[in-house]
Design brief:
Blueprint lengths: L6 E7 L7 H15 L2 E7 L3 H10 L5 E6 L1 H14 L2 E6 L5 H6 L5 H6 L4 E11 L2 E3 L2 E5 H10 L9 H10 L5 E7 L2 E7 L1 E5 L21 E6 L4 H11 L10 E6 L1 E6 L4 E4 L2 E5 L2 E15 L7
Parallel strand pairs: 1-2, 1-3, 3-4, 4-16
Antiparallel strand pairs: 5-6, 5-16, 7-10, 7-14, 8-9, 8-13, 10-11, 11-12, 13-16, 14-15
Helix pairs in contact: 2-3, 6-7
């Protein structure tokens, strides 16, 4: 994508994600946008809702660069879905999993400088009880690990999820999940349920490694009965996406998934706490225009 001189652009910045990564990088990012032929308007946001509102108010076809974490990107996507703005995801969080999986550069200014090599593609958008997300919605042990990771007092970067996982191990007790995937119901006694759109979370875990982000389907991966060592091996294998062959992994695809559990649990979407189970997760096919590399691996 190449902009003519003085083409307007909106740069949304989350000042808190990645322990201030957005604040550290926004000036260089804005300068790169200007050098690329845009006139950037910078908005340092105060909430996820503000990101949604500003992306919603953007004119159709306007470039909206989103400098924040995965949850911030999902919030901006909710607004861009309505306005028809074109999103440029920029790494301003800790894990930046959606950006990694799409194949974009992790340095925000470099990602902007590579705009001429990017193409506009339409991505599916996941919805948890109506709340938009790009990457993964999850409930169970991994959600508890996410909660502990978010509460870490020291900056561990993507390793914060490892810290959260180790802490969650000490408290987790098996739960029985009830899943309804497009009307087909089954129960899973075990550790977690992950519903993937882009399908990566936790700082590099390819929990749903077979996803395509433009097929109108969500991938559902759950881990059944396992000991602590088995859970650890599952997550280690998920870095390479080789865990689906395990006998205690259940895999399916669908357009609408309902999750409930035998104990009180929250559901998360791109690291953000959406609320308690039960929850309904649906898909909005090809709902958002996003700039990605032409060879991005997650398109059909």
């Amino acid at each position: 994508m190449k902009a003519p001189s003085s083409e307007p652009a909106l740069l949304l910045v989350n000042p808190t994600s990645g322990r201030g990564r957005g604040l550290k990088h926004w000036e260089q990012t804005a300068a790169a946008l200007h050098a690329a032929g845009f006139t950037p308007v910078v908005r340092i946001t105060e909430s996820l809702q503000e990101a949604t509102d500003r992306a919603r108010a953007a004119a159709a076809g306007t470039l909206v660069a989103v400098l924040g974490g995965d949850g911030f990107l999902g919030a901006a996507a909710a607004g861009a879905r309505e306005s028809g703005a074109i999103l440029l995801p920029l790494a301003g969080g800790r894990g930046n999993d959606t950006i990694r999986r799409l194949g974009l550069d992790l340095d925000p200014a470099t990602a902007v400088r590579r705009l001429p090599r990017l193409v506009v593609r339409q991505l599916d958008l996941g919805l948890v009880n109506g709340r938009a997300y790009f990457g993964v919605a999850n409930a169970g042990f991994d959600g508890l690990a996410n909660e502990y990771g978010n509460g870490a007092r020291i900056n561990l970067g993507p390793f914060v999820y490892l810290y959260g996982g180790l802490k969650a191990f000490l408290q987790w007790r098996n739960v029985t999940f009830t899943l309804d995937v497009d009307g087909v119901q089954h129960t899973v006694p075990g550790w977690f349920v992950a519903v993937g759109n882009v399908g990566q979370y936790g700082g590099g875990l390819h929990i749903c490694p077979l996803v395509k982000v433009d097929d109108g389907l969500l991938d559902v991966v759950s881990l059944g009965q396992a000991g602590i060592l088995g859970v650890a091996l599952t997550f280690l294998r998920s870095y390479r996406g080789t865990h689906l062959s395990q006998g205690n992994i259940t895999f399916s695809r669908g357009r609408e998934i309902t999750i409930s559990a035998s104990k009180p649990l929250n559901i998360y979407a791109d690291g953000e706490n959406v609320g308690p189970l039960p929850a309904t997760i649906s898909i909005a096919p090809r709902a958002v225009s996003v700039l990605v590399p032409a060879d991005s691996p997650v398109f059909g």
